[in-house]
Design brief:
Blueprint: E1 3-9, E2 12-14, E3 17-19, E4 26-31, E5 36-42, H1 46-65, H2 68-84, H3 86-97, H4 101-118, H5 121-124, E6 129-134, E7 137-145, E8 148-152, H6 160-171, E9 175-179, H7 186-197, E10 205-207, H8 212-219, E11 224-230, H9 233-245, E12 249-253, E13 258-262, H10 268-280, E14 290-296, H11 299-312, H12 332-347, E15 351-354, E16 373-376, H13 383-386, E17 393-399, H14 402-411, E18 414-415, E19 417-421, H15 425-434, E20 439-442, E21 458-459, E22 462-463, H16 470-476, E23 478-486
Parallel strand pairs: 1-5, 8-9, 8-11, 9-10, 11-12, 13-14, 13-19, 14-17, 16-17, 19-20
Antiparallel strand pairs: 2-3, 4-5, 6-7, 7-23, 12-22, 15-16, 18-21
Helix pairs in contact: 2-4, 2-7, 3-4, 4-6, 10-11
The protein binds nicotinamide-adenine-dinucleotide.
Length: 502
């Protein structure tokens, strides 16, 4: 690994401006395509977290009192700035994460769409009203903000995952402290600058960087009302348990092993095209990536040969080079771990159809590259099947029937996304009905819901009750209150009996 001589430091964002850490711990941010360290990032300790939470606490009363339509107007300006700066944001994401510019730009777009959803907040906050719940008595509900909300996000979507949380939380009247991934923290800083430019009052949105110690300080802070987390399953479970034990409202999204079932009647060319993008896009570093294909009956040999032909034809290289379809992995250590899984797959007896380990990208010998890798005849006991590899490794499992395929998917401890490829409406309907997964695609490989639906998985892919953005997001970032009113037109008689409403 090489290091640039003059490294800049990514600051925190507190009280509406860049701020320095009070401590001395720090990490390094690497350009994934070259392997070069490009900047340093401070790791917040409990004191830094306290300063950010205090800023959010101070800003809360005035922001809560700002009318929803005014909050929405700030978000409308933020949305326009995101659109204007989309290419700059994509360039930062590509530099630090490695994904292609097109892919990075698409992820900014998906984040921007949550901002668009959140601008509808005056309508979304409307409650229920019932007249005459008793004689001369009416009831209505209101949705009110929680206070200081926090977000802890993964490396693979440095702007989109924060945007699943921040616009909805702010629109609902909360203030926010974000801890983005320390591996690619710069996109979140640009979001902070754009929110300030859009007119967001200081302290309403804050950013700290860091690691486990930083997260621990957030989860246990007495002034934090809610925690939204996205990341790997072990950390998601720990975050859910720790923050819940400290009285916070929590939604904690975890890892995945997403299956695509290809039925014998599927259009195998269309399915192969879809699966190549879903498996190898962003080098497989997507929580909704398809990492396991369940090929039913005769579909098996056909789909494997079509996948192999397409995988070997992919253009691999730095994400900012025109024509490149797949970039590097996030770190060297992660690339090595992915290679170890490929070795394990061979050892455990799977058929290695395409091996991406030997790939070299001219001029980028320090980059974290692995080519697309494809295994066939994988069984449910192999580590390449059981574990989330989070790299460009696609495994094909053979099944004899639709029933067997559904049972296999349902046996997985994960339940984030899944897809079925078929020409039969009845088969697709049965799949959608019986499958125990939160997001289901029918001939759609990556069924990420649009912003006005909610995003989230089942089982070990989500700890908590509510999914992110869409209607669940509004529910998560507000609490309801029922107001029961009587306006007597004569002085009340004193009555000590239990109130009833006939
Ligand atoms: P990660 O769990 O390592 O890190 C996520 C966040 O938690 C980061 O901000 C990190 O700094 C922090 N963190 C890491 N280790 C921690 C620890 N021991 N204690 C407390 N905090 C810790 O995940 P990652 O490698 O950044 O991201 C990849 C993972 O995220 C994959 O498992 C992927 O499936 C998952 N993911 C899930 C979704 C979803 O919607 N379910 C979306 C994107 C990514």
């Amino acid at each position: 690994m090489t290091t640039d001589t003059a490294l800049s430091t990514v600051p925190f964002w507190v009280d509406g401006q860049p701020t320095a850490s009070t401590g001395s711990r720090e990490g390094q941010v690497t350009n994934s395509a070259t392997g070069t360290v490009i900047r340093t990032v401070p790791f917040a300790d409990a004191r830094d977290v306290d300063l950010a939470v205090a800023s959010a606490c101070r800003a809360f009363p005035a922001w809560r009192a700002t009318t929803p339509i005014r909050r929405a107007r700030i978000l409308m300006r933020f949305r326009n700035l995101l659109e204007q700066r989309k290419e700059d944001l994509a360039a930062i994401i590509t530099e630090e994460h490695g994904k292609t510019l097109d892919d990075a730009s698409g992820s900014v777009q998906r984040g921007l769409e949550v901002v668009e959803f959140a601008t509808g907040i005056p309508h979304l906050l409307k409650g229920e009203h019932a007249e005459d719940v008793g004689a001369g008595v009416d009831s209505h509900t209101v949705r009110q903000p929680l206070g200081v909300c926090t977000g802890i996000t993964p490396f693979n979507f440095p702007i989109m995952c924060p945007m699943w949380m921040v616009p909805v939380a702010l629109a609902c009247g909360n203030t926010f402290v974000l801890k983005p991934s320390e591996k690619d923290p710069s996109a979140a800083m640009m979001a902070a600058e754009l929110l300030a430019e859009a007119g967001l009052p200081e302290g309403v949105f804050n950013v700290v960087h860091g690691d486990k110690e930083t997260v621990e300080a957030i989860l246990t802070h007495p002034d934090v009302a809610a925690v939204s987390f996205v990341g790997s399953t072990p950390v998601a479970k720990y975050v859910y348990e720790t923050a819940s034990a400290h009285g916070k409202r929590v939604q904690s999204l975890g890892g995945a092993k997403n299956h695509a079932v290809v039925l014998p009647d599927a259009d195998c060319d269309a399915a192969a095209d879809a699966l190549i993008g879903a498996a190898y896009g962003s080098a497989g570093e997507r929580c909704m990536a398809i990492s396991a294909v369940v090929a039913v009956g005769d579909a098996g040999d056909t789909i494997v040969s079509k996948l192999a032909a397409r995988a070997t034809a992919l253009e691999i290289g730095p994400g900012n080079r025109a024509g490149v379809e797949m970039g590097p992995l996030i770190t060297r250590a992660h690339a090595e771990k992915v290679k170890e899984y490929v070795e394990a797959g061979e050892r455990e007896g799977a058929t290695l159809v395409v091996d991406g380990r030997g790939l070299t990208v001219e001029g980028y010998t320090g980059g974290h590259f692995i080519g697309p890798t494809l295994f066939d005849h994988v069984t449910q006991d192999m580590s390449i099947y059981t574990d989330e590899i989070f790299g460009p490794v696609l495994v094909v499992v053979r099944a004899n029937s639709h029933r067997e395929a559904i049972d296999l998917v349902n046996h997985s401890p994960y339940g984030n996304g899944t897809a079925v490829f078929t020409r039969s409406g009845a088969a697709a309907r049965r799949f959608a009905n019986e499958i125990q997964v939160g997001m289901v695609g029918v001939n759609v490989p990556i069924p990420v819901p649009m912003a006005f639906f909610s995003f989230g998985g089942w089982k070990s892919s989500l700890f908590g009750d509510l999914h992110m953005h869409g209607p669940d997001g509004v529910k998560f970032y507000t609490r309801t209150k029922v107001v029961t009113s009587r306006w007597p037109d004569r002085s009340d008689e004193v009555n000590l009996a239990m109130p009833t409403v006939e």
